[in-house]
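Researcher: Let's do a round of design. I'm pasting the structure tokens now; please hold your answer until I've finished.
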């Protein structure tokens, strides 16, 4: 029994040393991706052997796919709905094994469908900008004009500042992303986008970005003016106009 104990102590120490090495390797390679732990020593794991290995491997696979998809900027090409579907696939472990071929296949699929993804994102943003039963005369159901009023989009913060409403963060980012892509500049480069960042940074709730002029109100409304009429026209051409009128 003493001999078995001594050997077991050595094996357990070696096993955890290997787990520590694997965890350090992953964290070093994905070092600029905060929020992903690549936890190879889960505290909530009571199993050992192959079952435990499978669970840890699934966690590593989920974290790795999440970061690779983000690095490829795939999420930024997608509509909110399609992005949430992709995130659920990653979380549930439904994406294929992480190999060079599978990563390249995802990249090629995204490149081949970029126009479809953009059209979906444009239509989604358009629907958000044109509430069907809007009480605001500035908004119209059939096309986006020079200005819109977006209800329940901002909230008061500290010292007279404003911040985007948590439930509208995705829409604001999607709006910014769509205008960047319609302008041929590719997806936004910051996590939330310049509009979100400008609202958060503004001292009085007003400001200007490359595409928008905004004013935040205490009732939660965001007054938005489009500074590039040609891009707003592109958005209308893809998602609005006659397509909507035929549906009425």
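Researcher: That's everything. Go ahead.
Model: Designed sequence:
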């Amino acid at each position: 029994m003493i001999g078995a104990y001594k050997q077991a102590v050595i094996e357990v120490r070696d096993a955890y040393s290997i787990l520590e090495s694997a965890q350090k390797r992953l964290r070093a390679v994905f070092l600029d991706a905060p929020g992903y732990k690549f936890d190879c020593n889960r505290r909530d794991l009571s199993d050992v052997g192959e079952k435990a290995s499978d669970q840890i491997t699934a966690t590593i696979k989920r974290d790795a796919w999440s970061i690779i998809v983000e690095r490829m900027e795939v999420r930024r090409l997608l509509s909110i709905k399609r992005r949430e579907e992709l995130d659920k696939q990653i979380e549930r472990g439904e994406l294929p094994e992480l190999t060079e071929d599978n990563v390249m296949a995802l990249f090629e699929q995204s490149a081949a469908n970029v126009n479809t993804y953009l059209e979906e994102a444009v239509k989604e943003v358009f629907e958000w900008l044109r509430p069907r039963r809007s009480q605001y005369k500035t908004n119209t159901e059939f096309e986006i004009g020079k200005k819109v009023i977006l209800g329940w989009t901002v909230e008061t913060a500290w010292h007279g500042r404003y911040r985007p409403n948590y439930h509208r963060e995705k829409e604001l980012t999607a709006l910014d992303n769509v205008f960047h892509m319609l302008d041929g500049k590719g997806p936004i480069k910051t996590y939330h986008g310049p509009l979100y960042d400008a609202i958060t940074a503004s001292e009085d709730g007003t400001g200007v970005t490359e595409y928008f002029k905004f004013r935040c109100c205490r009732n939660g409304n965001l007054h938005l003016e489009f500074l590039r009429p040609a891009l707003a026209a592109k958005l209308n051409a893809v998602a609005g106009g006659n397509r909507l009128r035929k549906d009425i």
